[in-house]
Amino acid sequence: MAFDNIYKDYIKEIEERKALGLHPKPIDGAELLSEIITQIKDTDNPNRTDSVKFFIYNTLPGTTPAAGVKAQFLKEIILGEAVVEEISPAFAFELLSHMKGGKSIEVLLDLALGADAAIAKDAADVLKTQVFLYEADTDRLKAAYESGNTIAKEILESYAQAEFFTKLPEVPEEIKVVTYVAAEGDISTDLLSPGNQAHSRSDRELHGLCMMTPQQQQEIIDFQTKFPDASVMLIAEKGTMGVGSSRMSGVNNVALWTGRQASPYIPFVNIAPIVGGTNGISPIFLTTVDVTGGIGIDLKNWVKKQNEDGSLVRNEKGEPVLEEVYSVATGTVLTINTKKKKLYNGDKELIDLSKSFTPQKLEFIKAGGSYAVVFGKKIQTFAAQTLGIAIPSVFAPSREVSVEGQGLTAVEKIFNKNAVGVTPGKLLYAGSDVRVKVNIVGSQDTTGLMTAQELESMAATVISPSVDGAYQSGCHTASVWDKKAQANIPKLMKFMNDFGVITARDPKGVYHSMTDVIHKVLNDITVDEWAIIIGGDSHTRMSKGVAFGADSGTVALALATGEASMPIPESVKVTFKGEMKPHMDFRDVVHATQAQMLQQFDGENVFQGRIIEVHIGTLLADQAFTFTDWTAEMKAKASICISQDNTLIESLEIAKSRIQIMIDKGMDNHNQVLQGLIDRANNRITEIQTGTKPALTPDNNAKYYAEVVIDLDVIAEPMIADPDVNNDDVSKRYTHDTIRAISYYGGDKKVDLGFVGSCMVHKGDLKIVSQMLRNLEEQQGEVKFNAPLVVAAPTYNIIDELKAEGDWDLLQKYSGFEFSDLLPKNEARTTYENMMYLERPGCNLCMGNQEKAAKGDTVMATSTRLFQGRVVEDTERKKGESLLASTPVVVLSAILGRIPSIEEYKTAVEGIDLTKFSPAHKQLVG
């Protein structure tokens, strides 16, 4: 295609976007920008004026192909090799300063280390403001300095003093805000960035149109007009902001509507959003707010009402009554004082904001985001070491909390092992700010395009060699190979494969495409329980190591640097007593954990924002993952399984066999990452067997925020997490805290569809499906489905094992549809028949971006998601419901077309090998 045709296609696309109320799409391709530059050089070209604007204002920075072309042309202008009336050499330097690394740094170094002294000085002045430098860049600077180049010395001296940070404007002492209540109750990121719009996340302006409703978007615009000197603060009234998925796209959307533009020359990249929640901000969402230099506030504007004697006032349901401490009703004008760290209404002090304005968070706000601080610290350290001087004290020192004589929790042990740049020999405890080495990184496919953009924007081109393993999944787009997936996924896989990540799809088409659920793969490739894992999904919750769900940007940072920065979280210890009843499934124990915890602490969720250290050592990694996975819905920061030696060894042997299957398929890369993981697993097994380093345990004198003991004896019925869609208190809807026994429903609540799938199920769950079908066939002579049952295995390995063991034959016998990789669906299913569907491995209904239940359905699912509109949307007459339960409950509900009675359930599961758990005989401590 000729370049002029590329430009014509771009203009055509612009007209199409204009019809949708959108601006031109930002340019990332080299061919298009090359044609634009050709038209700029032709002073008589009729497209020249538009081309100049596209070049200046609409080209993506970093390491995009377009950024390389732009940087080179700006270099020509600075050297006088090209003359553009609208872009003077001084303006060319200004544009380079906004390009954030990559080719722009290469050009600036060429000019700074060149022969023209005046140009070198101007280039050096710009370089002093830049932080996204990599080894190739710092090696050039170091070599020039060592050869006596004075400009290089000047740049290094500036870096050592961190002038790129110190010369930035200070954070305003007072920030005026006007409140906007986005919703009452917990606000899931689905409200801010719906799953069914995942395909557009990398097109920031287009994706921004899906946040909340058009009416709410207009109301925000109206507030900005009415209060031009104030920022709009988005609020979750009587709830937590940003629960559910760890979406950079959600924060990007909030910033797009309420923040400020990061640079006039970078389109649709906004920063500095301000968000608040009565119960604070979800931990993973708050990390993303930090990425954008925003502010997250725990409003605490509703508290539990107390009697004069200090006892809680309860309603007729026995729930604590809340009373309003102060109002944040939409349109309330408040003032944030960043020096006093207080929130005011006029002169009245409302709350302390110290947690929102720690020294580290203030640095993120000043720098316009956490990336700039992370990279800034690295460049300062490099410069000081190169100059042979001590690192000047510029940034706030990392907080190092040490407690004499106190033992360590499991997470404290892991963070101490992986800590980078801390005081040698000093033990760190919860509350410490720590830079840590990241061992395993996961990128999933609906956030992956944004992760690729983030990597380009921070000018990263190759994975950090310190990362043990990284995986790019294809599970969130596995169900439907539609035009959106066909356009996005191959491009993503090629980028990540080139970057050094193991990819689910082979860009060269050599190995079979894998759509295995990312969490299952990460759970297998984590081969050390001392590991730290970062993944682009809230359910990055491994049963080995400690895993943190993260936004696409934090994933990019981990891939590029091999590091992450965060405070060491507090821990809540969970142990078990009693014995599981034979008809119960381990999923019921998971739900009961949440219910019993809330009961023990008068409705306070002690898990929120903390590590759940679960002593579950007799369960293998696959089964234990059912618990750790659910901890995202418990609003925990992460979870750690304390395992027995023999159990951990068996789990590692299983992981090795699955990694070997990936190798046999041809998925390993030239760095032999997968083989390296097997070697690490073998080493870890040897350490455990020889007693050199037993399985991770906490110290017996470790300190916990709380300790929860779950009584297995009282779990007598299957437990269901209910979205409670008709609760009179709106704030109680769509939380994961309403856990009900099966008998609550009286055996007559209609179920329209059953779903067995998502990351919450393992091989045993699929065997339970086949065993139940066999059981019911023997009892009734035949099995008839009164509602559809959708079954999606999490991995291909599981299907292969089920085929070998004979279970898949029975599933096929009762299925009316079986997926085919040779003929993938290219349209999402919208209607279902009363039969079983064997769907492709992947997320399927749980993600809600492709497959969905029919609107208004009541769905019974093994999934984790019950948020409004996620699995099922509402109709005008009926709200969609996504109830969450164990596999046997889901299967029986689909067969009956209703929630079964406890008697029907017991009969159906008689003799079936359900997922069982027995507590360890003694507490595991170091």
Automatic annotation (TrEMBL):
Keywords: Iron, Iron-sulfur, Lyase, Metal-binding. Residues 179-408 form the Aconitase B swivel domain. Pfam families: Aconitase, Aconitase_2_N, Aconitase_B_N. InterPro entries: Acnase/IPM_dHydase_lsu_aba_1/3 (IPR015931), Acoase/IPM_deHydtase_lsu_aba (IPR001030), Aconitase/3IPM_dehydase_swvl (IPR015928), Aconitase/IPM_isomerase (IPR050926), Aconitase_4Fe-4S_dom (IPR036008), Aconitase_B_HEAT-like_dom (IPR015933), Aconitase_B_HEAT-like_dom_sf (IPR036288), Aconitase_B_swivel (IPR015929). The keyword Glycoprotein does not apply. Its EC number is 4.2.1.3, 4.2.1.99. Residues 413-897 form the Aconitase/3-isopropylmalate dehydratase large subunit alpha/beta/alpha domain. Residues 9-165 form the Aconitase B HEAT-like domain. The keyword Transport does not apply. GO terms for molecular function: 2-methylisocitrate dehydratase activity; aconitate hydratase activity. This is Bifunctional aconitate hydratase 2/2-methylisocitrate dehydratase.
